[in-house]
């Protein structure tokens, strides 16, 4: 892999179209910033409509290229497996690139990249297992069957918080099925996707099967989601952008898969070991400086342990080390964007104006070393009310609002009182109660006595304004293939 943190530094990155890295027709390059010091560290191409059209044409041409169209399922699976091997070989460099681009902890990125090849291998194994059905009809001498085939060109738009990991859950199955792809990574973290493109070429995928167009949402993203030759749009990002993209795609009757934002409830009952639940709540919301879609940012605690729990939560949070993402002893790194930092500050200030109290945090770190980066202290707001702005909107920062509840009924009403429905967590020793929660909560994922443990083997996704469509497990193979009915009279 030519792309490394070293080669990226000060470089201009081009688009990956039809198997080659090419200069953008737009002629425009935009900076990508290092969140630890706010400095631009490389330039990425800002693709325009003509660039995007070129990429979609390359993907369409690859669909009918015999090298791809007539490749057996088994061979497609082998190619995806080969990609898994290459990702394994380059996992550490890919992790370094993402850390530099989005400021997430290197140790977390290393864990993600080293786990990622298993997901590619898992979906590679499905390439030859996607079957159709033979259906009995009310007539002799007739065969009626449904066969499954690829959808076509899939547009994939990804966010900056975990670009490659979030891409894997749809890219790997799409390739296993035989689709072709145009990826538009976030303008704030495109480098790892461009590096992956290199590995895709090296693995031996025919030219045009995977294309990467970088650039702003308003330029490259809009052009891609408005394109008429897309078969499906896969979007991971904010609910606001998802709404706009769904509108663009709907104009062409193109279906979407939407993985959007969240405001997930994290519920703690009085029968738990407090230390364990505190660790779960802390990891659930402060991981990645709160920049995870599933962040448990609304914490509901049973009244009989509220004071004790709050004391322990504040104490545990005091021990969190905010620092540089490359340092091994750092627990929380910077936010990825300066706008994100301002957003967090705005929500905390409005929460305090509305009557919430800062139990800890509520400011940027005092350390001189961190002054130039986009850092914010892990923050707990007590005396929260579910109608306060910071309890309703996704902040995407290290902020959790805590409030007490006194009955199961009250808790489920509070937990469900949100426009979102991505994830949820409950800490209790009572399995009946946990099951009632799982049944009554409006969230696509329910964690019991754990949080953020995701598996690509199970299908998952959001409810309500957190999106629609499912990733993971075998369901994803149906989401990205289509059924064709064939009737033979003989
Ligand atoms: P974002 O919505 O700002 O951007 C996401 C992507 O959309 C970027 O590539 C961006 O360039 C593109 N985009 C922006 N405007 C566009 C437009 N008009 N047309 C087409 N594309 C456009 O999100 P973000 O700030 O990059 O990521 C954070 C958000 O992503 C949070 O809301 C988070 O919850 C969500 N997220 C969801 C999941 C999930 O699985 N549900 C996972 C990770 C992140």
Automatic annotation (TrEMBL):
GO terms for molecular function: aldehyde dehydrogenase (NAD+) activity. The keyword Oxidoreductase applies. Belongs to the aldehyde dehydrogenase family. Residues 21-486 form the Aldehyde dehydrogenase domain. Keywords: Oxidation, Oxidoreductase. The active site is at 259. This is Aldehyde dehydrogenase (NAD+). The keyword DNA repair does not apply. Its EC number is 1.2.1.3. CDD domains: ALDH_DhaS. The lineage of its organism: Bacteria, Pseudomonadati, Pseudomonadota, Alphaproteobacteria, Hyphomicrobiales.
